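Re: the request from the purification team.
They wanted to know what the chain is likely to look like in 3D before they choose a buffer screen. I agreed to run a prediction and write the result into the notebook, where they can find it.
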Amino acid sequence: MNTPGSTPSIGAFTVIDTLGSGGMGTVYLCRTPAGQRLAVKVVREDLTGHSEIRQRFAREVAALREVHSPYTVPVYAAETDVPPLWLATRYVEGPTLAARVRDTGPLSAEPVARLGLMLAEALATVHARGVIHRDVKPGNIIMEGDEPRLIDFGIARSIVDVGGLTAPGTIIGTSGYMAPEQLAGGRPSPAVDVFALGAVLTFAATGRPPFGTGSDANRRIRRAEPPRLDGVPAGLKDLIGACLAREPGARPGPRDLLTTLATLLKTAQEPTRPGGAAERAGRGEPTEPEMRSAHRCRTPAPGGACALRPAAAGLLDAGLTPALIRKALRDAH
């Protein structure tokens, strides 16, 4: 970081303020020569002394440049060759999801579902470019109006990487939002971001993560204690529970979540079809108990296909008909 005169700068950008810092570096609010504000993350100097780390950083910056989602922030510029390494993105002015919930209270069912839909789209796009975020949490989600912006890819990891930015067994992430395999120091997969998304949506709906916070949360997750989902809207409880499955392969993928949440939101806004159980049976449609039984999964399949089936019960609680639930599940798989 250059310091011409008394004004610090990063590359061609003037530093205005410090936005925050963490284990991987410090984020500064900067201004371009034309006056545009940027968020610039500078990687800790002691982490950039090895060529392997610089190569990793360069690969991830290249991948993030290809991420085009309305729910992430675009890369503006970066230094990937010579320390200090930094990454500049558009500055998003707004509260974090953590601050929004703290100041105004938990969100109701439809806003939580919409939040989940938008974040699932962001993760689908990020994962398609070969990047795992690894630290999805309310503090890394900026609310720009009613839309989320997923930020801070400072500890992101390339899916295809064989090397490691950190030593084997090192735990990176935030307590209460880390998947069991992440806590165990294992090699992360995109499924860790889905687990974190389930915890984020629980926080959005209740004001607390499903396993608590700090070391107590880590202990509960390691011991496979069930998540605390009381207060989560009935129509979302099974779906969020599937995201929080202990086994990575039992969790739905972001695209599964996209399909199911989009159907949920669409049908929730449509008039409920008339007729009780007798009339549905007369039309040849299964009754609600039959639907619950038919879509209960006993052996989760890789990719989370079966993990979504218990969500049928939750969708019924939202006032959806069995035929619509059947269509949602068929479209998702």
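For the purification team: The chain has twelve helices and ten strands.
Please add any questions underneath this entry.
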